[in-house]
Amino acid sequence: MSASTTYLHLLAKTPFFTALSRDQLQWVINHSREWSVAPGTEIAGSTRAAGSFWVLLDGGWQVEHKGRSVKAGHADPAKWYGGRDMQALGIGDTRLLATAKSYVMQIHQVDLDEMLRRGFAFGPHLDAGMKFYRSLRKQ
């Protein structure tokens, strides 16, 4: 993974962030890190997932769990990965791998908590993702 630059006008078009104001988008940029990721690169895994929350900005990734892979794009329920809430589900071992040249955003849990405290409109995206991750628990 290599560091990449986050552009406000592009972030505003990314499904996870479309409901945010310009000031909120800038706050996200100031409190996150964007990475460029080559296909096949492991982005994160369950052993270190609680401290960071990942959002797919562009490209594709897959969540691997119990020998199964689920591919996702930036508009799918699995467009985010990690964080305290996902880990609390007790899914077990998971890995997140890039399936294409991708751009991902890393947000530390403490910064995500602050965004939510400030009322950033992530609710529908978080809810859809949690439903997806709960379904992994049943498999």
Can you characterise this structure?
- By secondary structure, the chain is of the alpha+beta class.
- It is about 30% helix and about 30% strand.
- The protein contains five helices and nine strands.
- It has a five-stranded antiparallel beta sheet with strand order 1-2-9-4-7.
- A hairpin with a 2-residue loop joins strand 5 (about 60-65) and strand 6.
- The termini are far apart.
- The model has no long low-confidence stretch (mean pLDDT about 95).
Q: Indicate the proportion of strand residues.
A: 25-35%
Task: Give the topology string: H per helix, E per strand.
Answer: EHHEEEEEEHEEHH
**Quick check: average pLDDT?**
93
Output the number of helix runs: 5
- Low-pLDDT ranges: none
* Rounded radius of gyration (Å): 14 Å
Which structural class best describes the helix and strand composition?
A: alpha+beta
Number of beta strands = 9
Helix proportion:
25-40%
Largest sheet: 5 strands, antiparallel
Major β-sheet strand ordering: 1-2-9-4-7
Distance between the termini: 30 Å
Described by the principal axes of the CA atoms, the overall outline is globular
